[in-house]
Design a protein that fits this description.
Immunoglobulin-like, four-stranded antiparallel sheet, alpha+beta, eight-stranded mixed sheet, 16% helix, globular
């Protein structure tokens, strides 16, 4: 039996037309690829002085009855450059009732302190003023109440008789953002008294923020600190306003959270300082616990 295959001429024409269109697309993509890789032009982006020599403010006052301080430096333009302190500035902090003048600490340029101790109060609004070279920089902040918290946990290392931190705080809390400062001191533990005290202390910071970022989840691993039994640990929780938490988030995106699996794109940070200055002036309520490491 002879088998005859019938071909629809109109369908064969459609197939030929589709093949022709596909070939045209391939040639177009090849042409664009060659054009992109072969035509290179160096472009020079002009750098202006608009964001150079900013006044950088690092200032947190708290509800603790203590000498309050603010650090002021000039911005740096190169990686690992040592910042230059802003000296001989006139600095003050005020609320609705009082004004405190901050004097530059002797032997510590750029660090300004109040003459007397005072606690920041709830329901008060604080203003920072900095006068330098006929310019005025300002910031306003208020305080969020502190709260009790679950203290950190620690456990023994697998390979020695030292200990390490297991858990400090939750990374995310939409309603109660906070900054945690952990001070670990084993300089007075027997066997460590003759060692340089600076090598027997550690200061760590953790953050509970109202957002959860991919770069935070996959951030580079922090250095593991080991310490012996008898170590004294001070855990302090700093309450944060929403604006203060946003500032810390943008700072962490550019620092601690860089170098992980998912880096964020660089962007402008958030600040509550007026034009010509950057950083943050914050007012925090502090809650503390003191822990002795026991076997």
């Amino acid at each position: 039996m002879e088998i005859i295959t019938l071909i629809n001429p109109s369908r064969r024409g459609v197939r030929s037309l589709n093949e022709k269109k596909l070939m045209q697309k391939i040639l177009t993509y090849l042409f664009m690829f060659v054009l992109l890789v072969s035509c290179q032009k160096q472009v020079s982006w002009p750098i202006t002085d608009q964001n150079l020599n900013l006044v950088i403010v690092d200032g947190i006052i708290t509800d603790e009855n203590k000498i309050q301080s603010v650090k002021i430096y000039y911005s740096i333009n190169q990686l690992n450059e040592v910042p230059v302190p802003v000296t001989s500035a006139i600095v003050s902090i005020s609320n609705e009732d009082s004004t405190w003048t901050l004097a530059e600490e002797s032997g510590n340029p750029g660090n300004y302190q109040t003459a007397s101790a005072f606690p920041a109060l709830l329901e008060k609004h604080y203003t920072l003023l900095i006068f330098k070279d006929e310019k005025v920089y300002s910031a306003k902040a208020s305080i969020v109440p502190g709260t009790e918290f679950k203290e950190l946990t620690y456990s023994k290392n697998d390979n020695d008789n030292l200990y390490h931190l297991d858990w400090v705080a939750e990374a995310f809390n939409a309603d109660q953002p906070a900054m945690w400062e952990i001070i670990i001191d084993w300089s007075m533990v027997p066997g460590y008294e003759e060692i340089d005290p600076s090598s027997c202390r550690a200061r760590l910071k953790y953050y509970t923020l109202p957002t959860l970022d991919v770069s935070e989840i996959f951030a580079p691993e922090m250095e593991k600190i080991s310490f012996p039994a008898g170590t004294q640990i001070t855990e302090q929780r700093y309450s944060l306003t929403t604006e203060h938490a946003q500032f810390l988030r943008t700072l962490l995106l550019e620092t601690n959270w860089q170098g992980g699996l998912f880096d964020s794109a660089p962007s402008n940070g958030i600040s509550n300082l007026s034009e010509g200055a950057f950083g943050f002036f914050g007012v925090c309520a502090v809650t503390s616990v003191f822990i002795t490491v026991t076997p």
